[in-house]
Amino acid sequence: MKKSMWKVILTGALLYTAVVLPPASAYTTLGGKYASSTISYIPQGLTANYSLAMADGIAAWNNANVDASFTYTSNVSAANLVLRQDAYGANIGWNARTANKPVMTSGTYTKSDIDFNTSAMDGMTVTARKGTAAHELGHVFGLDHVTDGKQVMSIYGVRTTSVPGPDDIKGVNALY
């Protein structure tokens, strides 16, 4: 009787894990995306460290097997994405942030801003800054955070990569 009960409990637990719990490595989305798969960007006031991080992040996405890309524009009014940096403070809880506009859980983005917090990021390695840039660019595409540290959309401190992982790529391709 006890063996039978344990088998039922174990089977139920395994079934619950397989069916109910989402996979830790799956992509998640914010709900919105751009109408076009080509997103234009312009840096404004980036120092060399942040220009390099952003260039590396853009190259990481543009070299990934995704159905969307970033392209430079010198016309600020034509840019979908504006890149900036400022010293927002070391203890505010974020290294960089992306604001997609209009803010929505579904629909089409028309503008995005990425702000690098130099107070938090100046002490990072070049690779960590590149990973942060690639992560924020994933938000511009419409991706949300994941828990798998092998994906660039994982949060800083958990993330072990600076380039898009397989699930990041699947997420962008599902959106575009």
UniProtKB/TrEMBL annotation:
Record-linked Pfam families:
Peptidase_M10
What cellular-component terms does GO give this entry? extracellular matrix
- Which GO terms of type biological process are on file? proteolysis
Signal sequence interval, chain numbering? 1-26
Q: Where is the Peptidase M10 metallopeptidase domain?
A: 130-176
- Recall the GO molecular function terms of this protein's record: metalloendopeptidase activity; zinc ion binding
This protein's source sits in the domain of life called Bacteria
List the keywords (alphabetical).
Hydrolase, Metal-binding, Protease, Signal, Zinc
Name of this chain's protein: Peptidase M10 metallopeptidase domain-containing protein
Q: Which organism is it from?
A: Paenibacillus radicis (ex Gao et al. 2016)
Q: What is the lineage of its organism?
A: Bacteria, Bacillati, Bacillota, Bacilli, Bacillales
